[in-house]
Design a protein that fits this description.
heterodimer; A: alpha/beta; Rossmann fold; 4-stranded antiparallel beta sheet; 7 helices; 10 strands; B: alpha+beta; 6-stranded mixed beta barrel; 17 helices; binds adenosine-5'-triphosphate; binds magnesium ion; transport (chain A); MacB-like_ATP-bd (chain A); ATP-binding (chain A); nucleotide-binding (chain A)
């Protein structure tokens, strides 16, 4: 049934363990082993406080204070320096957050272009063309020159997805990407994610509290109390 | 790098009021610095030049008041001798072998001019009134080489003195007090009581009241006659050097070699030079204070900006901006504020200087001056901009570093 299991893996963890020391010593992540394959649309679910966000920050390379091993796109990321990790994120990981977190002073187009300009792989003109292409794919092309503060929540989230896609990352991570959207926009975002994974072989991990969203995705990983239970 | 600049620019433009306020702080500091430094150094240079042109690089004279060992000290060497209120010996201020000394010094390659002269106290008689002043016996041509007298002549020419045995060139202030002009005759009296009538052949103005109000130039022979001395009588030798900064090191050598006091211009004008230093200290300390205040303004505004932009910084970092990129974004902002603020400050400082230079100012009898002397030396404009940009760089560094250290997780977690 699960055909993606035959694809090469994009993300792999080995016994990821993390503690918080404030206010008391407390183990949030307990020996997490997780493998995500290329083109997989994975939902991460679990009760509030079980450690989903914490795991996402570790997977995203922003949190380096953990034990165990993390590997993305064949690169072992444990023990890399902050600067190396920043460069890695830029090239290989796309983010979609619950709150849209666009840069308010910039236009839609500029927001999408920034990670690509940072990468510096393409000329400014090429970056602009690519940004337009991504915006078109998400139905946001006509809003390209608007300041992002003039967009609705659903529109902003689509711009955020376009931005996450601009560098053709190996994996897109979302922490409750539809958490702040109404059911219509949740459907829109879900459909986009599904199209990306199925048509473009994009890999996506999304934390969600939406059961329907999780059920319709390719694979559900459930966490409880710092463990992966399913 | 270009991206970082674009982001910095967007931040600056999207909050124009903050940006302008921060810039005005720097503008004010630099503007005041330029205005103050232009006026202060203008005054300093003006007075310095006056003093410089009116005092020789090295002045050799017989210092009759110089303390000398008492007779008892010469006899009882090393003993405990007590001499109260020792008076100077009755010596004339005459320099022995003055012309030989002058000839020797003239051969020194470091020297460009040597002028022997005689100075004496005299009274200028103006009806029943006697004005005390002095008369300088000089070879006017030599004296001109040292003090550029030709340019200071208000009436007559220096050659007129050479041609007139009983001629004098009188200081302008003195001439005014005596109500005398070129062609008039004045009677002078020496402290020894010798009286002579001399003819004014010219009027000079140095610009310093302390000279213009008391001094006249005459020929060496005229003054020798007044003082009833022989034609070898000379009391002073003035020397001009190629490099006046060497005066302090050359003077002691002459003093040892010729046995007369040799005083360099720095020692002679010590009080005046101290005044210069104090003025400079004042200028710089006021300017630095202003700039520190401006620096605090920038520090505050950047801190505020960074506080408001925490989310943006977290997003940038999540998207792959390294701490160093974030630091650059904010450093660029503070440097741009500093640079543009300083440039505006230079413009305003220049404008103020122009205004000050036009303001009428009466130097009174002391200095002949009708406008403030203002210095437009570009050096101070360079110092100003370096100063302004450095201050803003320091002020911006701490907040920028803080921004670079922001942990994105803490912000994104909400
Ligand atoms: N910085 C922190 N210091 C200490 N404890 C923390 C910190 N962040 C999170 N925790 C704790 O770690 C646990 C896991 O938090 P996490 O945010 O990962 O939960 P979550 O699964 O994302 O929950 P939700 O579904 O509500 O977002 C919680 O008990 C939380 O209180
Ligand atoms: Mg969470």
């Amino acid at each position: 049934m699960n055909t993606t299991a035959f694809e090469p893996h994009v993300l792999h963890t080995h016994k990821i363990t993390k503690y918080f020391y404030e206010p008391d010593k407390f183990q949030v992540l307990k020996e997490i082993d997780l493998t995500v394959h290329k083109g997989e649309f994975l939902s991460l679910v679990g009760k509030s406080g079980c450690g989903k966000s914490t795991l996402m920050y570790v997977l995203s390379t922003m949190d380096t204070d953990y034990e165990g091993e993390l590997e993305i796109a064949g690169v072992r990321l444990t023990d890399k320096t902050q600067n190396e990790l920043a460069a890695f994120r830029n090239k290989h990981i796309g983010f979609v957050f619950q709150f849209h977190y666009l840069l308010p002073e910039f236009t839609t187009l500029q927001n999408v272009m920034i990670p690509a300009l940072k990468l510096g792989k393409y000329s400014r003109k090429e970056v602009e063309d690519r940004a337009y292409a991504k915006l078109e794919m998400l139905g946001m092309k006509e809003h390209a020159l608007k300041p992002t503060s003039k967009l609705s929540g659903g529109q902003q989230q689509r711009v955020a997805i376009a931005r996450a896609l601009i560098n053709d990352p190996d994996i897109i991570m979302g922490d409750e990407p539809t958490g702040n959207l109404d059911s219509y926009n949740t459907h829109v975002v879900f459909d986009i994610f599904q199209e990306l994974t199925h048509t473009y072989k994009q890999t996506i991990i999304a934390v969600t509290h939406d059961e329907e969203f999780a059920r319709k995705s390719d694979r559900i990983v459930e966490m409880s109390d710092g463990h992966i239970v399913r | 790098m270009r991206l970082v600049i674009d982001i910095a620019r967007t931040h600056l433009i999207s909050k124009p009021r903050q940006t302008i306020i921060a810039m005005l702080g720097v503008t004010f500091g630099i503007g005041m610095f330029i205005a103050m430094v232009s006026l202060m150094t203008g005054l300093n240079n003006f007075t310095e030049e006056l003093t410089m042109t009116s005092s020789p690089d090295i002045h050799i004279y017989h210092d009759v008041t110089e303390s000398r060992p008492s007779v008892i000290e010469q006899v009882n060497v090393g003993g405990i001798n007590k001499v109260h209120h020792q008076k100077p010996k009755n010596e004339t201020p005459r320099l022995r072998n003055a012309h030989q000394i002058a000839a020797l010094i003239r051969r020194d390659p470091r020297v460009t001019g040597v002028a022997p002269s005689i100075s004496s106290q005299v009274f200028y008689n103006y009806g029943p009134v006697q004005l005390s002043g002095n008369i300088l016996g000089v070879d006017i041509i030599e004296e001109d080489k040292l003090f550029e007298l030709r340019e200071k002549m208000k009436e007559g020419r220096i050659e007129d003195l050479k041609a007139n045995h009983d001629g004098i060139i009188m200081g302008r202030g003195l001439a005014r007090k005596l109500n005398a002009r070129t062609g008039d005759r004045v009677v002078i009296t020496t402290p020894q009581g010798y009286t002579m009538t001399l003819k004014i052949v010219g009027v000079f103005q140095m610009g310093l009241g302390s000279i213009d109000n008391v001094r006249s130039y005459a020929n060496l022979s005229t003054v020798q006659t007044i003082l009833q001395q022989d034609h070898l009588y000379v009391t002073d030798i003035n020397i001009k050097l190629k490099d006046l900064l060497l005066a302090k090191s050359i003077a002691p050598g002459y003093q040892r070699m010729y046995g007369y006091k040799a005083e360099d211009w720095e020692t002679a004008n010590a009080t005046f030079l101290t005044g210069n230093i104090i003025r400079n200290i004042l200028t710089y300390s006021v300017s630095i204070t202003l700039l520190i205040v401006a620096g605090f303004g920038i520090y505050n505004i950047l801190n505020m900006t960074i506080y408001n932009k925490m989310k943006d910084i977290a997003i940038l970092k999540a998207m792959g901006f390294a701490g160093r990129d974030v630091k650059q974004i904010f450093m660029i902002q503070s440097l741009v504020i500093g640079f543009i603020g300083s440039l505006l400050g230079l413009a305003i400082g220049y404008g103020l200087s122009l205004l000050i230079a036009q303001a009428p100012f009466n130097g009174g009898d002391f200095i002949s001056l009708d406008h403030f002397p203002v210095n437009f030396d570009p050096k101070y404009y360079i110092i100003g901009i370096v100063f302004g940009v450095t201050t803003t760089a320091f002020a911006g560094y701490m907040p920028s570093r803080k921004a670079s250290k922001i942990d994105p997780i803490e912000i994104l977690r909400g």
